[in-house]
Every structure is written in structure tokens, then in C-alpha cells.
What we know:
DNA Polymerase III, Chain A, domain 2; alpha+beta; 3 domains; 360 residues; 7 helices; eight-stranded antiparallel beta sheet; 39% strand; nine-stranded antiparallel beta sheet
Amino acid sequence: MLAVIKTEDLQNMINRVSKCSSNNKLIPITSLLNIKVTMGSMTLTTTDATNYYYAKCSELVECDKEDFEVSVICDTFTKLIQKTTSLTVALTVEDKILKVKGNGDYKLELPLDEVGKPIKFPNKIPTNVTNVGEIKRSDIDKVLAYNKASLATSVEIPSLTYYYCGDKVVTSDKLKICCTNIKLFNEPRLISSQVMELLGVLPNDHINVVTDDNALVFTSGSDVVYAPITMEVSAFPIAAIQKLLDIEFPYEYTVAKAPILEVLDRLSLFVSAYDKKCIYATFNNGMLLSSKKSSGEEKIDVESVKEGTFTCAIDIEMLKSQINTQPTEKVSLAYGIEMAIKLVSEDIVEIVSLSQDDRK
């Protein structure tokens, strides 16, 4: 049982497929990488116990007539192949050992199932499917760049750990909201953070999407991501979030992105643990940012659109993360209500909650 593949091809496949290996110690299969060689092609598979990533190469340098399927420890195999500089890698299965020949000769002991056989992965890809359409990985890249910083990381409200993909892509962690004017699907769907990350590593810009009503299957080139539908779209509080996005603010500045980030970097040196990451912002003939103890303050030049006097307290890290995601050199900053400020540029709207101002 022999398969020889170009090292570069194998490295590229592993770089993508390894992103789905969650290495959960309680679920052994999540630490494995499956290697299946059949009919002159090689398929690598990993899983996080929910989603599956399949990467296929049909251009093997050499392959004997005997098919094989084995699983190896993903982390060890990945690191070995990433450090290999030979032009090709030869994989041979002998006596429950995977022999890897590249720069040298290495032997990987194969994990076995309950009857002593090499572990096989299930083929999750359904055959009776309905076409959903096509999405672009370049749009996925934008969603990850803009919306990810507003995604909930706790499961207090489980649906907020998902990307709401309707006419626009919306994420929120209750303190921040990001709305990006990108439509991925013809009908609203919730995409988990894990799946969105996997879509971001698919090899081609064009991604075909099909469904069997229980799962979404994304295909790009020879790669396939199988993603069960784990949350109903109705669970996402889009109506309540949309009301917040529609709030009109009385005042507005236009600020340059780079200078305000530089100010926040300097000011963060003077924000102590006792400040709970908060700084003060004063809007009046410009924008003045200061630490709570007034040990640091700096004024930012602005272009006034509709100016008014307003003071507030805001989490410096939260403000910085949201400004960082803005794609343009200048950002519209709307203010004047006690609850939040709004950041707008191009097709992106972000709401950032304000903190309690202990001066009031």
C-alpha cells in the first residue's frame, strides 16, 4: 500500500484541513487526520466532532493498485509534513504502521478501533441535496475581518455565537454590534464561528453550497466542508438588534482611523485595572480622550458633520477593536445618546455600548 505525493500539494492540503481538527481530549477522533487513498487519489479528512473538512488530491506522483485508509495523530503528522523539504512524500502502510519517507524515514503508529483495525472516518457528504447557490470566499474574508470582533464568545445567549446571514451579516455580543452589507444566501441562515473560519481557508473564491435540510455542504475546488445545521435562524434576536442599528444619533464627527488608533495605543498605557478598561471621551470642538485619573489625555482632530457637546465613558479595548475593523481611512462617529456610539464606513455599521460614567 503505497502513495507518493508532491510535498507542496500535501502541505497545502494539510494547512487547510488541519483547521478542522479541534483536538478535544474527550473526543479522540477530533485529534486525528484521516488519510484515504483510492483510485489514484488521496483524501484527507478532519473533524471537530460536528463539522468535517475533506481535501482531495487527484494528482499523485505514484500509487499502487491497493487502496488504503488510515488515521494518524493530526498534530504530529502536520508538523512533520510542514517541516519536510523533499520534493515528494511517500506514504506506506505496513503492519499497523504508517511509514513516511521524505527527507528521512519516519514511522507513525496507527491509532486502532475497538477491533484492532485502523480508524476510518464516516463519509458525511449527502447525495440527495438541493442547490443553495454560490458564495464568494472574498466575501467570507470580509465577514471575518469586520464581524468577528463583535461575535459572542460565551454561550449565555447561544445564538449570538453565530453569524446571522440575511440581507446583511450581523454579529453581536450584547456590548457590540456589527452589520456588514453582504448577502451570502437567498434566505436567512445562521453560520457558526467554526464553520465561518473553515470557509475562510477554502482554496478558491467560488464556493458552491448545497443542503439536505439537515446540513450545509460547501465545495470549493477539491475541498468540501460538511456543516450540520445546529441552530435555527429564528433563535437569533435580529429584530431587537435591528432596532438598535436604526437608532438616529443627534451628532456626528468624521475622524481619521490611524490617528485615533495611535491615541488609543498611547492612552492604554495609563489605564489601570481599577479603571475597568474605561476612558472618558468629551465631544466639544473636537474629540478629547482621557484616562480616568487624568494622567493622560489627547485631543483628536475631527471633521464636524453635526457637532454637539457630549461626554461619556467607554471601554478602550472595545473601541479599539471596532475601529480596527473599519476598512476605510476615515470613519463616521455618531454620538449624543447615553447608550452607545455608532461607527460607520462604506457598508459597515458598528454599535459600541458606553460604560457607566462615574462623573455624572
